[in-house]
Design a protein that fits this description.
heterodimer, A: mainly alpha, MetI-like fold, 20 helices, 3 strands, extended, B: 75% helix
Chain lengths: 452, 487
């Protein structure tokens, strides 16, 4: 019965449909599909390209800070200038200020230039001033005071070149720009070229960038991150000592003991909201409570640490609660079943099992705190020139200091472009610290993670 | 530092307490721990905690309360005549504190004897010169009233410190002796210790509440102080932001809010499409290998500190944009700091934020819904657009709102990348400034908290706090309200 009508029906349908021939509508849908997929790939690729550009420009701009231009100069430590009495009396030698040393260095460099046979219209030793870092005189003075017997000898010193010379060797300062520059002339650059060829001036690895102190605005070649690394270190000690115990205690209470009531709800809402409060608001809190109200010293790592503790607490509480939650209830039940009290079950069994997760969360929280800048600006850690190492443990907490990100911000604000290189270099150091902490966290997680 | 020593002494006391408590418990039961109610170590802990916790609590309270009390008393005793016309009581008090500190330093360096510091009279001695010798620089000559107030201040602080030492040690010893005397085989040491520990846990959990309370109170008090000096109407509806520390500032918040929203808008325009498409691709399309590489790499962007983004905006993105849109190119961009610079970089920072939140939400959509859609013949993209995204929409909107709240509160990128000029302009290549950037610029530098120009920062902070909190609460509300229907 159907046999006869089937061909007619088939003929009535608009077209022969086959899965092998793709009709217009399917083609359109497939195109839409491919487009959508391409958008996805493009989005991921854009994100990754941004990451590469960011990391690339950090590396490209920052690596230079780890190298610095040094000049090797033999300096005759003239007894007539440095020790007029001739008695090598240390108090008398100390009376000679750095101004007394400057001409000796200039004379030394001038002699080198003459000896190398570099032709220059600069005929006075005083003309060498622009090539030498102002820090060199202090370096000489410290050496002589430490070892007065050197007076009268010719000693070879490795002194810092001025930041313009350094910039010239690093392609930051060009001959065309120098014409308008008061700090250096083209003639100096000619000498520099000659001395580089003679091996007197050379770029070398600059350890004092990592370990040294910050310098005043006019001598970027001398500035280092060391003191502010110590500042960050003391701050992190405060954060660790406070936020780990308080955070873990709070999480244990909320996760294991808290009854369902208003107070518990209040705490929970508070913690989740605090995690989303902008960091600058914590800075305002630190300023108002710790400095305005409690009169703690400004710029002290203690205050920075306290402020960052409050900021890190929610992070630590959230991750600690997650890892407490992941310990299965059977552990608690077993402990309770053999007669342990609730407290014993938690402290003897649940907490040790949750420890790797807690540590991971703590390290990540610390890494966040280490990179945080905004709250530190408000409690006075910027604008302070961190030139002194703390004297000891107590002064490390109480004396004014800077912190790594605050120091980087400070450098970024200074007018001299030589400081930009320093800021990028500082970022490399900061990122190395952060990366190390995160890698430790990942290793901890991999090593101790348990699947129940 | 006497406080440090006190802490160490009390800690030592509590350590001794542990040993003694444990020994005494064992002795009282004749060395048989089965006769005791609790394990011996609980008796030790009982003594240790009783010696430690009350003493430490008292020390903490005392350390906070004493300076306030001394301050108030001295400030109350200062005669009105000691306060110059142009000055205020709080400024004179800060002088008093400085002189007192100076005298402390002078005594500790041996430049003055204790008696001399306490009886010094400014009529007879050049106090300023004497203090300058030990490295304490004073702005002006010391007024006799200030000097005697400073001496009172020192005397009170010293008495206070002495009393504190005595009280803390007494409380510690009292707890020690009391706990030790209660140690007996019938004593339920474990229950008492566990109650104590529980109380400590509650205290730790309350820190969060205290922090919020601290934030709210410090913002509210200082904001009210500000509104006494400057009208609230002019603050909220003023269209000019021109602070001048000499007085006569105009502090309208509207230009700052406009800058904040404009920058956040650009940031979201960058972050939301990229983040959302990445999340869709990584969770629906990408092979496992690509996902396992690309997802963590995108999340690296979230772990980079904001100062790095700030520098990136200032030194890389800004100059690059100027080359394209500056006077050599299109000619609409004057300087490298602009709304566009900050917005673009902030957008990059927010990509992982949007993508990982959306990723979680998309993964939470039940597989059955996808299977149903495929079964009806839909392609993958049709499934994503017509099934998964509508199902995940509340969560995604929540994620975007959270990203917006983060953009509004972001500080370092705008401080370095957005410029300092507050203006109402539509051109995204103009320099503008934001609420957070102005908080920083009003509160760094000289900290005279009494002026409207400094106090305005607290009002700005309050605005920021309310805005971000509102956004967060709204985001959570949306997520909670619409989530259940797909579970």
């Amino acid at each position: 019965m159907t046999d006869a009508s089937l061909p007619e029906n088939a003929a009535a349908s608009p077209a022969h449909r086959s899965l092998n021939t793709v009709d217009a509508r399917t083609r359109k849908r497939n195109r839409a599909e491919a487009r959508f997929r391409a958008y996805g790939i493009a989005a991921v690729a854009t994100g990754l390209v941004f990451l590469v550009i960011l990391l690339g420009s950090i590396l490209f701009n920052g690596v230079g800070a780890f190298q610095q231009t040094f000049i090797k100069v033999p300096v005759y430590l003239d007894p007539a200038k440095l020790d007029k009495s001739g008695e090598r009396d240390i108090e008398a030698i100390k009376k000679v200020s750095t101004f007394g040393y400057t001409p000796l260095i200039q004379q030394g460099l001038f002699d080198v230039v003459q000896a190398e046979g570099i032709e220059t219209p600069l005929a006075k030793p005083g003309d060498m001033k622009q090539m030498i870092s102002p820090s060199a005189a202090a370096q000489l003075r410290d050496t002589v005071i430490a070892n007065p017997d050197l007076i009268g000898q010719t000693v070879e010193f490795r002194i810092l070149a001025s930041s313009r010379v350094d910039g010239y060797l690093k392609d930051r300062v060009f001959r065309e720009d120098v014409v308008r520059d008061k700090n250096i002339d083209v003639e100096h650059l000619d000498i520099v070229d000659g001395l580089v060829a003679a091996g007197v001036i050379a770029k070398e690895f600059n350890l004092s960038f990592i370990t040294g102190a910050d310098a005043s605005e006019s001598r970027p070649e001398q500035a280092g991150l060391g003191v502010s690394i110590l500042g960050s270190f003391f701050m992190m000690l405060v954060v660790l000592a406070l936020s780990l115990p308080i955070g873990v205690a709070a999480s244990i209470y909320l996760e294991e003991f808290a009854p369902q009531n208003r107070f518990t709800d209040l705490i929970e809402v508070n913690i989740s909201n605090l995690a989303a409060v902008p960091s600058i608001v914590f800075g305002i809190l630190g300023l108002a409570v710790f400095i305005q109200f409690a009169h703690l010293p400004q710029s002290a790592p203690l205050v920075g640490g306290l402020t960052l503790t409050l900021m890190t607490l929610p992070t630590i509480v959230i991750s600690t609660r997650a890892s407490l939650k992941s310990v299965p209830p059977s552990i608690r039940d077993a402990a309770l079943g053999v007669g342990a009290s609730k407290m014993q079950a938690v402290f003897h069994h649940v907490l040790p099992m949750a420890m790797p997760g807690i540590l991971t969360g703590t390290i990540i929280g610390l890494a966040q705190a280490l990179g945080e800048t905004a709250p530190l600006l408000l409690i006075g850690m910027v604008g302070y020139i961190a030139t002194n190492y703390p004297d000891g443990f107590a002064s490390g907490f109480m004396d004014p200091n800077s912190a790594m990100p605050a120091q980087i911000f400070e450098w970024a604000k200074r007018a001299d472009p030589a400081y930009y290189e320093r800021a990028w270099g500082g970022i490399i150091i900061l990122l190395v610290f952060l990366m190390t902490m995160n890698i430790i966290a990942i290793i901890l997680r991999r090593r101790f993670e348990r699947r129940w | 530092m006497p406080a440090t020593w006190l802490v160490l002494i009390v800690l030592a006391l509590s350590a001794i307490g542990y040993v003694l408590g444990r020994q005494r418990a064992l002795q009282s039961s004749g060395g048989d721990s089965r006769a005791l109610h609790s394990l011996p170590s609980y008796y030790g802990w009982h003594v240790a905690l009783m010696a430690l916790v009350p003493a430490m609590g008292l020390l903490a309270v005392w350390l906070i309360a004493q300076p306030l009390l001394v301050e108030n008393t001295i400030s109350g005793q200062l005669p009105d005549s000691a306060i110059p016309e142009s000055s205020t009581r709080s400024l004179v008090m800060s002088d008093v504190r400085r002189v007192a500190e100076g005298l402390d330093i002078a005594v500790s360096q041996g430049a003055m004897t204790t008696d001399e510091a306490a009886t010094l009279r400014s009529e007879f001695t050049q106090v300023r010169e004497r203090l300058a010798e030990v490295g304490v620089a004073l702005g002006s000559d010391v007024n006799p009233a200030v000097l005697s107030a400073a001496q009172d201040y020192r005397a009170m602080s010293r008495t206070g410190n002495l009393m504190m030492t005595v009280a803390v040690l007494a409380i510690g010893l009292l707890g020690f002796v009391y706990a030790l005397s209660r140690t007996a085989p019938q004593f339920r040491a474990r229950n008492v210790v566990e109650q104590g520990i529980r109380a400590l846990l509650v205290a730790a959990a309350s820190v969060a509440v205290l922090t919020t309370l601290g934030i709210v109170l410090s913002l509210i008090f200082n904001t009210l102080e500000f509104f006494k000096l400057y009208s609230a109407w002019d603050f909220f509806f003023g269209t000019t932001w021109a602070p001048s520390f000499g007085g006569g500032s105009e502090l309208g918040v509207l230009p700052l809010l406009w800058g904040t929203f404009y920058i956040s808008l650009i940031a979201l325009l960058v972050a939301v499409p990229i983040g959302l498409f990445s999340a869709v691709y990584l969770s629906e399309y990408a092979p496992r290998k690509i996902r396992s590489v690309a997802k963590p790499m995108l999340e690296v962007l979230a772990g980079i500190p904001t100062i790095v983004y700030g520098l990136f905006a200032l030194l890389t993105v800004g100059p690059m944009l100027v080359q394209i849109f500056g006077d050599d190119g299109v000619g609409i961009m004057q300087a490298s700091t602009a709304v566009m610079t900050a917005g673009l970089v902030m957008g990059i920072m927010l990509i992982p934020f949007v993508s990982s939140l959306s990723d979680d939400i998309i993964n939470a959509v039940p597989q059955a819904m996808r299977d149903g859609s495929y079964g009806l013949g839909a392609t993958k993209s049709e499934t994503v657009r017509q099934v998964i995204l509508p199902a995940a929409l509340p969560g995604i909107v929540g994620a975007i709102l959270l990203a917006a709240s983060r953009a509004i509160g972001e500080t370092m990128i705008v401080v370095l990348g957005a410029g300092a000029a507050a203006r109402l302009s539509m051109n995204p290549f103009d320099a503008m400034t934001t609420v957070t950037a102005k908080i920083v610029s009003q509160l760094t530098g000289d900290a005279d908290f009494a002026s409207a120009e400094a106090l305005v920062a607290f009002a700005l902070g309050m605005t920021l706090f309310v805005l971000t909190l509102g956004l967060n609460v709204f985001a959570l509300f949306i997520v909670r309200k619409y989530r259940e229907q797909y579970e």
